[in-house]
Amino acid sequence: MPRGGEGRLRWPAPISRRRCSARPSSAPPASARAAIDRRALPLPHAGRPVRVDHVVPDALGGPSILSNAQVLCTDCHDRKTQNDRMRIDKALRLSDAHHGIRDPHARPIAVGQPLPPGKPARRATAPLTKPLPPRRSLCVSEPR
């Protein structure tokens, strides 16, 4: 990873939009405290660390206001974040496709070009090398 000034890591521009959707929280700590105080019911995992999360993520158009905040335990927050990142990545892919942006690392698709000539197809079974045994005749036995 390239290093920026003062020993901090920085992402290259093409990768940052695709792979790293994390960014510093825009909500001040007072809003986080207000979200924790606002919840009426105790958490199912009482005594465990909690995180304040957006109900609708910023990247999907969610506002940074108190009514869009929820308090989750770390396990639930991690599961929700994983689901949110999949939705964000899909939205970015659809947006890129709509605007004609292509991934430079994608394999080009051959459109309208004939396939190169190849070896002739092989048979599924090898041809018979010895003759088959004689077939049974269909004789109807006479009653005795």
From TrEMBL:
Organism encoding this protein? Methylobacterium currus
Lineage of origin:
Bacteria, Pseudomonadati, Pseudomonadota, Alphaproteobacteria, Hyphomicrobiales
The HNH nuclease domain extends over 31-78
- Feature: compositional bias, Basic and acidic residues: 95-106
Residues in a coiled coil are none
Q: Which Pfam families match?
A: HNH_5
- Entry's InterPro entries? HNH_5, HNH_nuc
Q: Where is the composition biased (Low complexity)?
A: 22-34
Q: Report the protein name in the record.
A: HNH nuclease domain-containing protein
| Region annotation (Disordered) ranges | 1-34, 95-144
